[in-house]
Amino acid sequence: MRSFRARVIQPTAAERVRSILAAAHSMAVVSDGVRSEVRRLDGSGAMSPIHLHEPSGATRARTAGWTPVRLEFTDIAPTPVRDRLRARLTLTGVMAAAYDAGSAQSTCLEFGQAVLEDPEGRAVVTLDALRATDLDPIATSEAGMLTHLMDSHRELVPLLLRLVRPQPDRSVLRALPVAMDRYGITVRLEYPSGHHDVRLPFATPVTHIDQAGPQIQALLAAARRCSHHNRLLT
Predict the structure, then answer these.
(1) Rounded CA gap, 22 and 19, in Å?
(2) In CATH, what number does 13-131 get?
């Protein structure tokens, strides 16, 4: 009997962790009782001075001089949706010395675990899972692509709603793109009493950033072909 692989339409926890780490330009580092806010506005990632390494043994963390460290990230939607906090990510591990925010030297972090928390729950991601996961090619371009959609092509968002099943009713106040990844676009429907996110998957996952534009155009073309009996948000 032939088996069929289910179509993947959303990223795994490991993929989301990799995307957050790649795109983040700020983080909090808690080391030796001191909390340091790291903000890099030069275009480089917040993680650029820190390298993750395999743990070298359970006893090493107990050796004098090794300091427990916690890295904290917040994943914020780049568009002005309600409740812009998409996820919190915490990485734990140990360093040979307390973190020095002013140091120009690269710092090695022996990886403990990554914990991703979002509205769907909590997931623990190992270093092996991160290493086995390819970086989403849209990760570092997502914010710019979504803000461009809102600033220059806002009229296309209501068109995408034709693809939502079941169709939203007229109580929807706003519909805004809240996320984009290699698998598709997530649109947030805002109601008087709350909000609901819907996934609009691409026909196939994006493997190179140059494929993102054609995939978005394919979604828009599919939306135009849909029968349309109401004028929701238009």
Answers:
(1) 5
(2) 2.30.110
The span from the CA of 143 to the CA of 78, in Å, is 5
Measure the CA angle with vertex 67, ends 63 and 70; round to 5°: 140
Which residue do the tokens 């691409």 mark? Answer: 202
Half-sphere exposure of 220 (CA within 13 A, CB side): 13
**pLDDT value, residue 138:** 98
**Confidence (pLDDT) at 58:** 54
For residue 5, pLDDT beyond 70: no
So what's the pLDDT on residue 43? 66
* Single-letter amino acid code for the residue at 94: V
Q: Which tokens sit at 219?
A: 């979604």
Identify any residues that bridge with 212 across adjacent strands, giving them in sequence order.
none
Angle separating helix axes 142-152 and 13-23, nearest 10 degrees: 80
Residue 167 pLDDT > 50:
yes
Listed in sequence order, the DSSP H helices in the chain are 13-23, 127-131, 142-152, 156-160, 212-225
The burial class, CB within 10 Å (0-12 / 13-18 / 19+), for 144 is exposed
Question: Which amino acid is located at 155 in the chain?
Answer: E
Superfamily of domain covering 142-225? PNP-oxidase-like (3.20.180.10)
Domain residue ranges in the chain? 13-131, 142-225
pTM attached to this predicted model: 0.89
